[in-house]
Write a structure and sequence with these properties.
The chain is α/β, with parallel strands linked by helices and 169 residues long. The chain has helices at 11-27, 43-57, 75-80, 96-109, 125-138; strands at residues 32-39, 63-67, 88-91, 112-118, 141-148, 160-163.
């Protein structure tokens, strides 16, 4: 914590500098894009991983956007999961190309703390770069949810969480 050497500062000045420090530290946080690969027959595992983060993000003043192909979020599930019903927005029945395009636009706006989209195919390097850039611009998180069938695990990537971060690359 930074402490000033001036003991007799006015409280208005110190509260203003505190707000400036808080805003600058919030703005210095970069966006994040992660891919979550999960088994369709084990959706609870994904919920265990993501719900605490989504609950925390629900405390922000921004929205949470769910872009789904066919699933519809039930009001009861949102409430029982501890997510703020008034901050969760869902757009369903999107095709995969529209999901990616919508994610990029939504992340860029800064109106959403998190944007979650379901895609069946892996992202190209260019698509991933576009998402990362949009998440950075909007200071938001994006999750690509990729379901795999249990019988296709032998030929495809194993279930897991793919974390893209500058800290590890």
């Amino acid at each position: 914590m930074y402490t000033s050497g001036y003991a007799n500062r006015s409280s208005a000045l110190s509260s203003t500098s505190g707000r400036i420090a808080r805003v600058s530290s919030e703005n210095s946080t970069a966006g994040l894009i992660s891919e979550v690969v999960y088994r369709e027959d084990q959706p609870m595992m994904t919920q265990l991983l993501l719900l605490p983060l989504l609950q925390q993000l629900g405390q922000q003043s921004r929205w949470q956007l769910w872009l789904t192909s066919q699933q519809k979020l039930s009001r009861e599930w949102v409430q029982s999961a501890g997510l703020p019903l008034t901050k969760v927005m869902q757009i369903n029945q999107l095709s995969p190309c529209h999901t990616l395009e919508s994610m990029i636009r939504a992340l860029r706006t800064g109106n959403y703390s998190v944007v979650i989209g379901w895609l069946s195919d892996e992202l190209t390097e260019e698509e991933h770069t576009q998402l990362v850039k949009a998440a950075d611009e909007g200071n938001a998180m994006g999750f690509i949810m990729r379901p795999v069938r249990a019988h296709s695990l032998a030929t495809r990537q194993h279930s897991g969480l793919k974390i893209h971060s500058n800290l590890y690359h």
